[in-house]
Amino acid sequence: MQNSSNQTVKNKGIYLLPNLFTTAGLFSGFYAVISSMNGHFESAAIAIFIAMICDGLDGRVARLTNTQSDFGAEYDSMADMVSFGMAPAILVYNWALQDLGKIGWLASFIYCACAALRLARFNTQVGVADKRFFQGLASPAAAALIAGSIWSGSKYEIDPTNISYIVAFVTALTGLLMVSNFRYHSFKEVDWRGRVNFIVMLLLVGVFVVVSVEPAIILCLGFYIYALSGPFITIKTIKKLKVEHIVGDEPVDPNETEPQQDMAEPHGEDKTQAMPTKDNPQ
């Protein structure tokens, strides 16, 4: 009887290491909000990138140490909403959109709401989605695009009032890309524990050197290219572009032909999904 009680208490514990990285990411996102309110936009943008690094580490650490848990998955989603939903939306509003009135805060809200929808959709598709691709732009990448733009603008002293309408458009469009059906490479098929050629390590060193020269500009351009890669990959791989390839409840297999889709999914057919198994989300 005593052993059963001890086992119950043990199961109620929380794994420290992966949740420590999640907490660090949450702290970075919260710090970005505070910094943007105080006018320290460059520091706020860098904090979002730090949150992105922490978010990339917590799930991998959990899998490597076999410390996945439902609590960790839920906590990670909550932290992501702060770091990659609220923080970028408030940061971009304080930097360039507050003088636009309703247009400014509506553009920020579109981004924030789309980030929440993106995370909710991702959580419901864990275990059934193709792990090689993300359905829609991942929220950390979207946040990095916004943060990279503001970091570059602050570093080179660009007056945000001169580009406020452009910033509003980019902010809203980035949010819509998150809830789109465009396919983005997830890079989850990379074996991080496997052996690589020596040349690969030299290339990685070169990447770090290039990024360190002008991190704001290079990271910003890199995530803009990644954001544009989704529509490019989708349009390139499908045979005929349809509305459901861009937006909808479920992603459509781009390898299916038009007749096969009509036969497999007749109009009005009730489609069901297997219940997903939770894992650490992005």
Observed structural traits:
282 residues; mainly alpha; two-stranded antiparallel sheet; 2 strands; 2% strand
What does this structure look like?
It is a single chain. It contains 10 helices and 2 strands. It is mainly alpha-helical and 282 residues long. A two-stranded antiparallel ribbon has the order 1-2.
What does the secondary structure layout of this molecule look like, with pairings?
Elements: H1 2-11, H2 16-37, H3 41-64, H4 70-97, H5 102-125, E1 133-135, H6 139-155, H7 164-178, E2 183-185, H8 198-213, H9 215-237, H10 258-264
Antiparallel strand pairs: 1-2
Helix pairs in contact: 2-3, 2-4, 3-4, 3-6, 4-5, 4-6, 4-7, 5-7, 6-7, 6-9, 8-9
N-to-C SSE string, H for helix and E for strand: HHHHHEHHEHHH
Portion in strands: under 5%
Describe the biggest sheet? 2 strands, antiparallel
Q: Please state the structural category.
A: mainly alpha
Strand order of the largest sheet: 1-2
Subcellular location: Endomembrane system
Main location: membrane
Organism: Shewanella saliphila
Pfam families: CDP-OH_P_transf
Task: Summarize the entry for a quick read.
The protein is mainly alpha-helical and 282 residues long. The protein has helices at residues 2-11, 16-37, 41-64, 70-97, 102-125, 139-155, 164-178, 198-213, 215-237, 258-264; strands at 133-135, 183-185.
